[in-house]
Amino acid sequence: MEYPLSDEHRMFRDTVRRFVDEEMIPHEMETCEGGELKPEWREKFHARARELGLWKMEVPEEYGGVGADLVSLVIVWEQLGRTVAVPSRGLGGIMGPQVRAPLYELSDAMKERYLYPVLDGDRTACFAQTEPDAGGDPGGMRTTAVRRGDVYVINGTKRFITDADTADFCQLLAATDREKGSRGGISMFLVDMDAPGLKITARYDTMMGDAPCELHFDNVEVPATQRIGEEGEGFSLGQRFLAHGRLKHGARGVGTAQRCLDMMCEYAQARSTFGEKLANRQAVQWMIADTYVELQAARLMVYNTADRAAAGEADRTDGFIQKMYADELGFRAADRCLQIHGGIGLTTDMPIERFWRQSRSFRITEGPTEIMKMVISRNVLREYR
Length: 385
Prior knowledge:
- The protein is 45% helix and 16% strand.
- It is α+β, with helices and mostly antiparallel strands.
- It folds into 3 domains: 7-98, Butyryl-Coa Dehydrogenase, subunit A, domain 1 (Orthogonal Bundle); 125-232, Butyryl-CoA Dehydrogenase, subunit A, domain 2, CATH 2.40.110.10; 236-382, Butyryl-CoA Dehydrogenase, subunit A, domain 3 (Up-down Bundle), CATH 1.20.140.10.
- The strands form 4 sheets. A 4-stranded mixed sheet has the order 3-6-7-10. A 4-stranded antiparallel sheet has the order 4-5-9-8, with no helix packed on it. Strands 1-2 form a two-stranded antiparallel sheet.
- Helix 1 packs parallel to helix 3, helix 6 (282-310) packs antiparallel against helix 7 (316-341) and helix 7 (316-341) packs antiparallel against helix 8.
- The model has no long low-confidence stretch (mean pLDDT 94).
């Protein structure tokens, strides 16, 4: 049931797979510390990424990048999803600086200040949407941006903002008309992290090993020229970034499920209990069979969505479906793998517990499963009206 990749895509997949198998997996338990790549491994992996043509794959050619197609990106995301050698969020920057799509839509002057320094690796950005009372429900956003002449005055709190403590600026979503909610009431701004009134008020140590931050905005003044797009377009601009991220979720879930399946099968055939291989136990066989079947479905979903999106045919529901299914599968596969390995799987000497923790978090971030289902069901029911 392999998705029909082109010869070029298959060759590219094999190249990236060898990179992961030969240079990442053998060292994966020693490459990260505190949720980040150790400097020596970052240097090594980044150098190899440049050699293999992975560097700036997501950056359009007109800005000095590869401008890779979505299927090629999914291939990389899937293969990197098979290892814990790189951080789960950001993937260790293996593909170069992370540039969120709205930055390409800035004016020439703003590109000089924000986009090009990010592309050159001189500045970094974070994305600030989630709030204490508005995570999966952006319409309930309470951080406000009130225009006063040539500036917007921003007040509110953002929570669980990844990389906020190291970023130079944030791409902020704030309500410019709370009555409209996400339908025309949210705008996007670029806010320098050293702006007066902007403070990091908390850091949250998570079970994934990272530490996202809480940001507090107290009468932070931002020039109107630092609004991206028109007033009220912020939610749709943010969705472009999140749609890309959801496809990454799906591909990563497929990679994790594949690695966990590999580990399940290898261990089940090597381990014996009560004089019998685990592979001969029906309970174990069913876990392997379920994972294998679900993996085939997930891979087809993810690659089909990438193909359709590249052709301009995929809609928001397609992205929700593949994210929900693959994220859930990644966690189920890690959980089954952990169960089959028993006590040894609980140790930090093996990557299984890390796959388990990371995959559990993906069922929440960039759209919880329950919200995915809510939107999917809403769209399905429209077909019966």
